[in-house]
């Protein structure tokens, strides 16, 4: 795949680059999709899960009905909107939402809760009285899996490239253990990256995930 210019960014930056046509294809939070005039999901793969994902959580030291303020992670619009959808249609609480600033995880105390995503959750898990896995809560609410991000384009992409790209993604998923071994990432103690990437994350964009994605987008329009 030496025909590509690969750029690595947090999900929210990937979304902005695709929206403003700074890239041709992006792995973007699906909550971006309603903002695009036209788009196409171009692969059979996504970042999804079917139940607990362990890396998208609402942390609190009080139960849901005692939370007053929820600070929302700035890294992913899908997680922000998922929190709001769950709040309005499932938890039915009256949270005040605030945008996060770097280091906001330290403000989780009393009636102040926060949504945190990604690698930062691995060291936070087990440190607060209450943890609400947002993908698990979505599964309870809908009975469906959840799609956090998908490969999207707003341009016309060569079908031959899409086929090759799909094959590359398929190959990468099969070699997850090799990718972990080749990585220099330092993981927290008691964290098993292979278990997380093979059992918590589910990559196939199947019929149920597409159904879940359509439902999520409908809920977003009602926020």
How does this model look, in words?
The protein is globular, with a radius of gyration of 18 Å. The protein has eight helices and nine strands. By secondary structure, it is an alpha+beta fold. The strands form two sheets. It has a five-stranded mixed β-sheet with strand order 5-4-6-3-7. Strands 1-8-2-9 form a four-stranded antiparallel β-sheet, with helices on both faces. 37% of the residues lie in helices and 22% in strands. It has two domains: 19-51 and 148-220, 3-Layer(aba) Sandwich (D-Maltodextrin-Binding Protein, domain 2), CATH 3.40.190; 56-142, Periplasmic binding protein-like II (D-Maltodextrin-Binding Protein, domain 2), CATH 3.40.190. It has helices spanning 11-19, 77-91, 120-124, 134-142, 159-174, 176-182, 193-200, 207-220; strands at residues 25-29, 40-49, 56-60, 69-72, 96-99, 112-117, 130-133, 146-153, 202-204.
What's a concise summary of this model?
By secondary structure, the chain is of the alpha+beta class.
Tags for this entry?
single chain; 223 residues; alpha+beta; D-Maltodextrin-Binding Protein, domain 2; 2 domains; 5-stranded mixed sheet; 9 strands; 22% strand; globular
């Amino acid at each position: 795949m030496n025909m590509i210019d690969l750029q690595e960014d947090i999900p929210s930056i990937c979304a902005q680059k695709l929206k403003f046509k700074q890239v041709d294809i992006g792995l973007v939070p699906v909550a971006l999709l309603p903002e695009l005039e036209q788009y196409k999901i171009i692969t059979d793969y996504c970042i999804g899960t079917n139940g607990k994902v362990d890396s998208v959580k609402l942390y609190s030291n009080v139960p849901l009905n005692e939370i007053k303020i929820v600070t929302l992670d700035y890294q992913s619009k899908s997680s922000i909107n998922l929190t709001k959808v769950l709040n309005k249609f499932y938890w039915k609480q009256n949270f005040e939402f605030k945008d996060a600033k770097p280091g906001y995880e330290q403000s989780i105390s009393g009636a102040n809760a926060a949504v945190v995503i990604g690698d930062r959750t691995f060291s936070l898990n087990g440190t607060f009285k209450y943890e609400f896995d947002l993908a698990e809560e979505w599964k309870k609410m809908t009975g469906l899996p959840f799609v956090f991000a998908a490969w999207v384009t707003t341009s016309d992409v060569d079908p031959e490239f899409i086929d090759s790209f799909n094959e590359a993604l398929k190959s990468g998923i099969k070699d997850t253990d090799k990718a972990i071994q080749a990585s220099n990432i330092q993981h927290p103690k008691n964290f098993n990256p292979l278990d997380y990437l093979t059992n918590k994350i589910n990559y196939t964009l199947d019929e149920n995930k597409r159904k879940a994605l359509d439902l999520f987008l409908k809920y977003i329009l009602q926020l």
